[in-house]
TrEMBL record:
Gene Ontology biological-process annotations: signal transduction
Organism: Leucothrix mucor
Source species, domain of life: Bacteria
Matches recorded under InterPro entries: Lcl_C, TIR_dom, Toll_tir_struct_dom_sf
Signal peptide from the UniProt entry: none
Occurrences of domain TIR (ranges): 1-128
Cited PANTHER family: LIPOPROTEIN (PTHR35812:SF1)
Entry protein name: DUF1566 domain-containing protein
Amino acid sequence: MNDIFISHSSKDRPWVYLLAKALQTDGYRVDWDKKHLTNENFAHVIQDTLDHCKCVITVWSTNSSESFWVKAETLSAMEQNQLIPVLCEHVIPPMPYASLATEPLQSWNGDKTDLRYQHLLQTIRKFTQPEATLQDGKYIDNNDDTITDCSTNLMWKKYSEGQRSIACGKGMVRQYTWENAVNRFKQSSFAGYNDWRLPTIKELRSLTSCDRKVASPLIEARHATTLLRNKCVKPTINHHVFPNTSPTRYWTSSSFFNKADYAWALHFDSGNEEESLKYYNASVRLVRNNEALDQGAIRLFNRSIG
């Protein structure tokens, strides 16, 4: 089954190619190319495609507004509750579709960081992601390589930076200096959101299975860093929820309060928090505030805690 079928006029093919390519690089299975179809099998194949996709994007333009097949495909998608109308030109769609909410992508040039494209991804996710399930008592896998922590209302990237996306978790975990990580990932874009960032030490600590410690710092001469020893269940991060997490240190955005050259990092193998020099390299897991945690997720979490 494909995730997305794109209904469009063949005259808009260059623009639709940009959209299909962007969606495919974001991990979606997209059916859009009708060039191989003949007049004899066109109707049968198109209907079968519509019946076996999760959502249909109709690209409205002057050309598609006059297309019999685009209007027929759109009607079928609307009847099956799987329609996402998109405008590629400043045009009013034909009736009865003019009254529907549309995604405004007029003059879009394929830029995946465009906020309009990011909003389209959020809309697509509503059709393509399975029903949320609770893991480890508090996590929801959003099925787009993001994880929602219902206990903190934070959304995390499922994989470390450097690992490839869309449910594979392969590739090398990359490491960065603290300054490079802060600047590189300031309001970065992923999964339809453009406000990803480095977590604070408190936020990153919330992913561990450790008891919070007020312990005497232990100086490790080799690294000239301060380690806070924690009582933890190892590994300290749930590897079913966050697979292939590196055992190395992870950066946080929290600088050390009286040492400008140091920032807090955390080791997921031991759960230890480390005061580390900012020019050291460390791994990165990004987070964002999840103000839009839906009521269904909240009810799911509330049921799990009694």
